[in-house]
Write a structure and sequence with these properties.
The complex is a heterodimer of chains A (107) and B (222). With 107 residues, chain A is mostly helical. Chain A has five helices and no strands. In chain B, the strands form two sheets. Chain B has a six-stranded mixed β-sheet with strand order 6-7-8-3-9-10, with helices on both faces. A four-stranded antiparallel β-sheet of chain B has the order 2-1-4-5, covered by helices on one side. Chain B is of the alpha/beta class. The chains are: A mainly alpha (107), B alpha/beta (222).
């Protein structure tokens, strides 16, 4: 299991930074809305993330599909990799928003 | 290897078309542990596609891969069953040699026993290896993985003659534990290692060769 998690982390790391930083920066530019304000913009942010994830899949399949053999040799299929990475991506996104908000309250 | 642990992989009815053009038609290929099987064919005859279909990452119009007579839909998803060396670089460049060995369950010391020049590279990142060493490392990893079958697509590409010779020794040693399928245009080296040889001819069919060199000439491969 740790081996599997390690592989997933490597896979997410290969594109995760952009998926994480662009929506977080967008949220920040929108004035870091929270509570009811966040509920208003959240659908748009989620859709934006889904759009970025679709682009990621497209680029990966077009340009880096040979790298998927690295994971296939470790028994991981493409669908599992992308699904896990995108779930991880959403968790990181919400966690980051929470952390940024909390840190701004404390500071 | 005793008969009890002997495993047989059969790829049957492998059928692949790209945009209406038939690449592979009704291919049959058999591998068994303890044997090296050669897969030859001219450029564009579908050797790599066939390997990927056996591995399970490429789906054709029809395919059947059986292990000891049991159908396996996606062989690569079965732990300990199969490994595949693709033609193109497949290792993430940012990883260290030791990390890749850990992830593939390959003992770095064993790898160095075969190729001593890798000693000292344990902490090196893949991107810092030379092109030849990267290919050599990738081939060794796939070959040394603890699996029953290994598919090697052009394992001798980018290797120097001395490394090709040493790689042949590793393949011969590893075949005691597994079944190995090799496809490479360095056909003399491949045939030196092979117990059986299949040729894919231009119409997309596989032929098990008996009189290898004569039939290779007859079908226009050499």
């Amino acid at each position: 299991m740790p081996r599997r998690l390690h592989l997933l982390a490597i896979f997410y790391r290969s594109f995760g930074f952009y998926l994480w930083v662009i929506p977080i920066a967008s949220w920040y530019l929108l004035g870091r809305p929270v509570g009811r304000d966040l509920a208003v913009v959240l659908p748009a942010l989620v859709l934006f993330k889904l759009f970025l994830q679709s682009i990621t899949v497209y680029i990966f399949r077009k340009r880096y599909s040979h790298l998927l053999f690295f994971y296939a040799n470790a028994n991981l299929c493409r669908r599992f990799l992308f699904a896990s990475a995108f779930v991880m991506d959403f968790l990181l996104f919400f966690l980051s928003m929470g952390m940024i908000q909390l840190s701004s309250v404390w500071i | 290897m005793d008969l009890m642990s002997k495993q047989v992989l059969e790829a049957d009815s492998m059928w692949l078309e790209y945009e209406g053009q038939k690449v592979l038609q009704n291919i049959y290929l058999k591998m068994e542990t303890g044997h090296v099987t050669a897969l030859l064919g001219r450029n564009g005859t579908g050797k790599s596609s066939l390997m990927q279909m056996i591995f399970g990452t490429l789906r054709g119009q029809h395919q059947s891969v059986r292990i000891n007579g049991n159908y396996v839909e996606f062989p690569y998803r079965q732990p300990g069953l199969i490994s595949y060396l693709p033609q193109h670089p497949f290792l993430p460049s940012g990883l260290r040699v030791c990390d890749v060995c850990y992830l593939y369950k390959v003992d770095f010391a064993v790898l160095c026993r075969h190729f001593e020049n890798f000693e000292g590279y344990e902490q090196t990142r893949i991107r810092d290896l030379s092109t030849g060493n990267r290919r050599l490392f990738g081939t060794l990893l796939v070959l040394l993985m603890p699996v029953a079958f290994t598919l090697l697509d052009e394992p001798f590409a980018a290797l120097s003659p001395i490394n090709i010779e040493q790689m042949g020794k590793v393949i011969n040693e590893e075949k005691a534990r597994k079944g190995i399928l090799i496809s490479d245009h360095a056909y003399k080296e491949v045939l030196n290692l092979a117990d059986e040889t299949y040729l894919i001819v231009l119409v997309g069919r596989s032929i098990l060769l008996k009189n290898v060199y004569a039939e290779l000439a007859e079908f226009g491969y050499i």
